Amino acid sequence: MADVNAEWPGRVAEVHVAVGDQVEAEQELFTLESMKMLTPIPASRAGKIAEILVAVDDFVDEGATLARLAD
Amino acid sequence: MVWQPEIDDLKRRRELAYEMGSPERVQRHHDRGHLTVRERLDLLVDPGTFRERGVLAGKATYDEDGNLASFIPSNYVMGVAKIDGRSVVVGGDDFTVRGGAADGAVGGKSGHAERMAAELRIPVIRMVDGTGGGGSVKTIEDIGRTYIPGNTGWDVITRAMSEIPMVATAMGSIAGIGAARVAASHFSIMIKGNSQVFIAGPPVVERAFGQPIEKEDLGGSHIHAHGSGVVDNEVETEEEAFEEIKRFLSYLPSNAWQLPPVCESSDPWDRRDEGLLSVIPRDRRRPHDIRKLLAMILDEGSFFEIARYFGPSLVVGLARLGGRPVGVLANDPRMLGGSMDGAASDKFARFIDLFDTFNLPIVNFVDQPGFMLGTAAESSGVARRGVRALAAVNQAVVPWASVVVRRAYGVAGAGHQNHARWNYRIAWPSGDWGSLPIEGGVQAAYRRDIEAAEDPDAYRAALEEKLSDLRSPFRTAEAFNIEDIIDPRETRPLLCEWVELVYQSLDTIARPKSRGTRP
């Protein structure tokens, strides 16, 4: 398992994946609106989305876990 | 043949030195995935150019007749050599002798190498391994007393940082003064998974906190080439580290009194990349890919990025325009919206100092929303770290060009150049600037009016729309507040012409600057 974390605070603007999706490394999983910019949150590695912990419009802090990736 | 016995002795002593610790220790070092210091030197420098200094230094024992019985060489190997035909000083710890610790050093050879480079005014490359000449309690036993620590040679290191390029690589697990040497450099490298840097290693840390810890968890490149910023780049192999060292030095003069080396560029200076017309999205909230943007403007393949993962909202590197080296600064809107947090501020200041020290004209690609906001940023001291960066901008004397590709907001946005100097500045039609952005700024400036309105939201929206009509960058250009707005495709030809122009009198600032470079 690997966590997908927000590296900075922001509002979850878009969720591009669903639980069970197979994703590639560097694929954009979420879009975080931060400093008025829509910034991509990519997958750190390939894997299957095991869990999504946020929804659109949630505010997340720096370091917050957005999703969990299974092998 | 009067001196033949001594010549034979000399030959034998050299051969013993080339054996390093012992064949078994060399084998163990290889088995851990490391090259020996002599193999490293061979791979780094131009073949046949290494001229060793101090090969005879070491610890010898003699038999009853006074003949040499055994010899263990000093664990620091150094000398002068050439890299791409240019002279350098190179040195490295020999881990196979006492793990690179000071008690195996003999005569302060690492400090000697730095002093030699400073006097010769040529770059110095330190390949640090083991404790990197650091202290060992074995010294206490050897000299029969303890001692006040002195950071021998730190005067040389401090001065050299302002005069000659200093490069360091962490080649193994390094602690103490070795770690300090790596940090005291203009460019540093770690080998992913096979080098660690720490103030003190796991045994000392365990003694201090009572918790065992693995060396990679304590000081791996995932820490130092990322969040801590202690080391600039991480590479997969030692060979890659040597390539990066050569690449880094190729942009720099040999010292602060000289100009960066100019080469022929095969990339036409007047190349106009059509992609530049579409690289910035119309939607202000959509980021662009700054590395793609830079590739469209700089000499093809010339951008050498440094410290990519530390303060990633600021991209920094060396590049060429028409074959002439420049220092590049660029905001990355995909990271923190491009804003300046504490780490990006530290990075900004450090690399402006580097470019200024080595007479590299600076090109700043500006898309700056301002300092990072919020509790975490405030707590990290972004205000002080940010104004230190602004001080670096104002202290720099190298020629400076700013290309405002999009936003320039607030105090950090204002810091894209020193406004008290003449700088070359151009903006793209996507230019968007101000003290405060209209969104948010309206709420702050017209709060009473908005709250008193019958429909506050509608009133705020109307105010924002009215101000947005005044947002066109052409209105700023009418007032000569931005010197020029250009077709983005013209950026490369204009910058190449500017670089050619400023190189004509660059020699007039080529000397150590009044303010040195601090590590």
List the helices and strands and how they pair.
The complex is a heterodimer of chains A (71) and B (519).
Chain A: E1 2-5, E2 10-15, E3 22-23, E4 28-34, E5 37-42, E6 47-52, E7 59-60, E8 65-70
Antiparallel strand pairs in A: 1-8, 2-4, 2-7, 3-6, 4-5, 6-8
Chain B: H1 4-18, H2 23-31, H3 37-44, E1 51-53, E2 58-62, E3 68-73, E4 76-83, E5 86-93, H4 109-120, E6 124-128, H5 138-143, H6 154-160, E7 166-170, E8 173-175, H7 177-183, E9 187-191, E10 196-198, H8 202-209, H9 215-219, H10 221-227, E11 233-235, H11 238-250, H12 290-297, E12 304-305, E13 314-321, E14 324-331, H13 342-357, E15 362-368, H14 375-379, H15 382-395, E16 400-409, H16 410-414, E17 424-427, E18 432-434, H17 438-445, H18 447-452, H19 456-468, H20 473-478, H21 491-503
Parallel strand pairs in B: 5-6, 6-7, 7-9, 8-10, 9-11, 14-15, 15-16, 16-17, 16-18
Antiparallel strand pairs in B: 1-4, 2-3, 4-5, 12-13, 13-14
Helix pairs in contact in B: 4-6, 13-15, 17-19
